[in-house]
């Protein structure tokens, strides 16, 4: 056990990992001869869709609509095949040179070969198609867009030691556990991108780099933070991390342990715990003054703050794109425009991303979270911003709990839903009984949103507004916002 986590001498290699493995016959796929295909459209995940001579669907990596390609099938399934381009015979006008040198290797940004306008149109088309499958027709879709590069303020980079003893730092390859070693990242904010090379240099000096599971980078309003997942304590390497944090003038935190990891801050001697906060500027978002003016109210007479600071801790959820998040908050407040004193329920409230801005424009907000720790976080954030927000803990995936919650909340004027990827089915199935006038649904998965929207429409709601937020530019992921109104 003395060598646990430490470098080992090089050994004969076979393949990327350096391990000699027996072939897995069951999972093995043989590449077929190339087949000429015409790409008809994009699948939801951004792959090109074609049909072979027999009419079977073929998904082709990195192919764009209208292109003719010679493609080789690398996975054969019963209903469809998966293929890659061997030769591109024609080129779409929408194709561009990917801005990242790791495109096609790294599994992070899979749409960099498609121009940005077409990327955003594709995302709107995905939402429209999924809703149409549920019998829901959408009108105009508002676009909430941000910067075209260096937008991501949070990322997790894997760490691995290969068979030659080289330490790799980067992201996973598509559909693989293989780590792609990187020196830069096109979508990280500049302060985080600048840390990648120094991090690589530091990792190469560690005595036990195998004990590092991953490194999380975080850029906040007040601090640059590195969070290290350390599988087992190593005193000498921890000292190296601390010196690195001092040299880079950043904050350092460590998750220590294999199964149940304990978190603690460390770094310079007598280091002060950094302040992690999300800043929402209501004046900058042009929602606070407009909201009061439209209602004929005296804006100058309100004591609500114009800049909100939402504190959070490592492990709390934070949107990766600060600019687009501000636009989403502004859109939801504009849609709901609560009159002062109106009752608003915010479910899956997180750290208060929507609760606090809505309270700042006059609503009486009840925020609900499943995690008791997050309930404490919302309460603390409301107090710090001098806002009256009540916070409750409830399991929002449980139908009985949801029924009890909605029945106990008197005269709800509007509801906000911001669930995780699995959606808010239990809530949407229950809403027909309560006839809440307005429901704003923010979704990171358009498929579960379409399912839940069908429940709402069946219960007497109609779609009033739709917006697609390009939170994850250059990827197929998106955030969708929908406003429903109850019409009976």
From TrEMBL:
Residues 1-10 have a biased composition (Basic residues). One of its GO terms (biological process) is methylation. Residues 1-34 are annotated as: Disordered. Keywords: 4Fe-4S, Iron, Iron-sulfur, Metal-binding, Methyltransferase, rRNA processing, S-adenosyl-L-methionine, Transferase. S-adenosyl-L-methionine binds at residues 319, 348, 353, 369, 395, 418. It catalyses: uridine(1939) in 23S rRNA + S-adenosyl-L-methionine = 5-methyluridine(1939) in 23S rRNA + S-adenosyl-L-homocysteine + H(+). Catalyzes the formation of 5-methyl-uridine at position 1939 (m5U1939) in 23S rRNA. Belongs to the class I-like SAM-binding methyltransferase superfamily. RNA M5U methyltransferase family. RlmD subfamily. This is 23S rRNA (uracil(1939)-C(5))-methyltransferase RlmD. It comes from Vreelandella zhaodongensis. The gene is rlmD.
């Amino acid at each position: 056990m003395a060598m646990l986590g430490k470098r080992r001498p090089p050994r004969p290699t076979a393949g990327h990992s350096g391990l000699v493995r027996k072939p897995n016959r069951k999972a093995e796929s043989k590449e077929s001869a190339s087949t000429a295909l015409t790409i008809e459209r994009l699948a939801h995940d951004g792959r090109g869709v074609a049909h072979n001579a027999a009419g079977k669907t073929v998904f082709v990596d990195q192919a764009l609509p209208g292109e003719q390609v010679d493609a080789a099938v690398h996975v054969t399934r019963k209903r469809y095949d998966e293929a890659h381009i061997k030769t591109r015979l024609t080129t779409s006008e929408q194709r561009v040179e990917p801005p990242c040198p790791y495109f096609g290797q790294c599994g992070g940004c899979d749409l960099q070969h498609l121009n940005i306008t077409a990327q955003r149109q594709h995302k709107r088309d995905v939402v429209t198609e999924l809703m149409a499958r549920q019998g829901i027709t959408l009108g105009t879709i508002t676009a909430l867009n941000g910067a075209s590069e260096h937008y991501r303020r949070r990322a997790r980079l894997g760490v691995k030691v290969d068979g030659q003893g080289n330490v790799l730092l980067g992201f996973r390859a598509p559909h693989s556990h293989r780590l792609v070693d990187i020196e830069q990242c096109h979508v990280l904010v500049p302060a985080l991108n600048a840390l990648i090379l120094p991090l690589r240099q530091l990792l190469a000096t560690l005595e036990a780099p195998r004990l590092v599971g991953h490194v999380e980078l975080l850029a906040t309003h007040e601090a640059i933070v590195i969070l290290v997942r350390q599988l087992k304590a190593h005193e000498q390497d921890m000292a190296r991390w601390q010196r690195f944090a001092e040299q880079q003038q950043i904050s350092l935190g460590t998750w220590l342990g294999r199964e149940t990891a304990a978190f603690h801050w460390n770094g310079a001697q007598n280091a002060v715990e950094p302040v992690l906060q999300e800043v929402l500027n209501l004046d900058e978002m042009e929602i606070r003054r407009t909201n009061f003016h439209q209602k004929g109210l005296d804006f100058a007479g309100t004591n609500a703050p114009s800049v909100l600071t939402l504190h959070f801790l490592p492990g709390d959820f934070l949107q990766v794109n600060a600019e687009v998040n501000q636009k989403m908050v502004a859109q939801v407040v504009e849609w709901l425009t609560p009159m002062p004193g109106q009752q608003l329920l915010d479910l899956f409230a997180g750290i208060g991303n929507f609760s606090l801005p809505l309270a700042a424009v006059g609503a009486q907000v009840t925020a609900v979270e499943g995690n008791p720790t997050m309930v404490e976080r919302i309460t603390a954030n409301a107090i710090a911003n001098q806002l009256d927000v009540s916070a409750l803990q409830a399991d929002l995936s449980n139908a009985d709990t949801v029924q009890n919650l909605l029945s106990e909340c008197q005269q709800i004027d509007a509801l906000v839903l911001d669930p995780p990827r699995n959606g808010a089915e239990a809530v949407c199935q229950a809403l027909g009984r309560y006839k809440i006038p307005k429901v704003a649904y923010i979704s990171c998965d358009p498929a579960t949103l379409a399912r839940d929207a069908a429940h709402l429409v069946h219960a007497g709601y109609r779609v009033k507004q739709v917006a697609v937020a390009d939170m994850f530019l250059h990827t197929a992921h998106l955030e969708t916002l929908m406003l429903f109104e109850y019409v009976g």
